[in-house]
Amino acid sequence: MTSDELKTIATELRKNIVRMHQRGSNVGSAMSAADILAVLYFEVMNITSPDDPARDRFILSKGHAASALYAALAKKGFIDMSLLKDYLADGSTLTGHPCQNTVAGVEVSTGSLGHGLPVAVGMAMAAKHDNKTYRIFVLMGDGECQEGSVWEGAMLAARLVLDNITIIIDANSLQGYGRAEDIQPIETLVPKFSAFGWEVREVDGHNLRQLINALGAVPFAVGRPSAVIAHTIKGKGVSEMEDNLSWHYFSVPAEKVKPFTDELDGPK
Amino acid sequence: MRIAFLNKLTELMEQDGSIHVLVADTGFHVFDEFQKQFSERYLNAGISEASMIGMASGLALSGKKVFVYGIVPFVTMRCFEQIRVDLCYPELPVTIVGVGGGLTYGPAGMTHHSIEDIAVMNCLPNMTVICPGDPIETQQAVEAIMSLEGPCYLRLGKTGEKVVHSRPLKSFAIGKGLRLRRGIEVAIIATGNMLPTAVDTCNILEAAGIRPELVSMHTVKPIDRELIIELARRCRLIATVEEHSIIGGLGSVVASVLTEEGLNAEVLLKKFAISDEYAHKAGSQDYLRRQYGLTAETIADEVRVWLQRIR
Known about the structure:
heterodimer; A: about 270 residues; alpha/beta; Rossmann fold; two-stranded antiparallel ribbon; 9 helices; globular; B: about 300 residues; 2 domains; seven-stranded mixed β-sheet; five-stranded mixed β-sheet; 12 strands
């Protein structure tokens, strides 16, 4: 797909995210991940069915961006598009953090941070053991890297020579209660992952061409796991939300849905 | 117990190529031969229990049956939330093997004691909790676990546990207590490494003219409800015996069954367990058991006293 076509898909994901977030929080986290998900699901990953044993696996370790994943799975045709309107409604399977076994295409239940990478290590070990060529992609937050289990998993992946794992850090620099750089600066992630034995690239996480080039080139080095630090903006695409911590918590008022989706469509 | 476990696991791994083993840097010398034989399916995951559970989840999601092995507190409580989210919610066939149940690591101090593990594993949906009473039960439990589809916690002692059963049991099944002696008036229900002590308790009581019923309740979850109901209807006193906190272990589970079944007025329950406190001193397993009143003599004395009171 061309980057223009992917941009159209990313815009569609974002518009659905805005509509879904009339309920619940974390809209900003979902918006920052939309371009990464568009590139993974519609360009980079080898996945045509959520049940195909040979598919590439995707783990949304930053589970609070569940709405972005649901939007991508619906666009992919793995879940019914009509499910999206029931996001977070009583009785809906689309919970605020995604659950495996209830939503087709959700590989791993996440929402508690720092779980995705260790699970990916297990999947990657199994793939190597069984001589399978599928790859595992894990999307994590920059704040999430404060969890110790991330570094346990990072150590293991390098030690076990798991070049079939790629992590993407959605580095939007805003976490639950502050700027990530005040708590753990993003720029320290590159030397940290390098020191842990990973091959690291940095990209603009909203530049589709850069994302395609980086994610399309993994593994960056044979025998080493790959890390992509994607610099992003929380709430990307809606100026009122962009880089504004409040949108980690706010839901979208009904009257804002149209102006927000209009802005995402751009000038007519 | 751990040698019994390992021998059975070796046998099963020779038959089933989908079994993988992750070890949390534990088991000095014990795994020497094992890791040579199964170099492709054995991994020392290092001192990182949280990620080891995540890895086990990833392996299980890829079609493997997984055993993770470590010292009880580290492989249950250190990584509790990984067990909850990565294993229990998706109902994956991963068995957590904890060595050093109860006060096995007595001299090591409270960090290595496991007195809350049954309670915390028991409250997890989809989890099976098995505490074998001797090496024979251990081997049969491991074999039975292979047919479970979800996660399991297997609580072992370490070395030197007495063999209680003289031969493999035809009737071993997960969730079914084993009746070792038929008796009247009092039933002793033991779990895990207290089974030999419970046997000694019965011998003391029998010498004093009391005929206790003895049950090895190797599975704490799912509990053998029918057996507890039957015992409650026939006996005046039930004594539970476990090397675990008095809160949340076998005694608590039996108490809930009795209450839920409306049998709590018909039978007195005495819980022999570790009082709600941590040990502050070094001590062998036997020393610490004496401090907590977990010896055959103490249990038998108390049972006699209570039987006289309620007669």
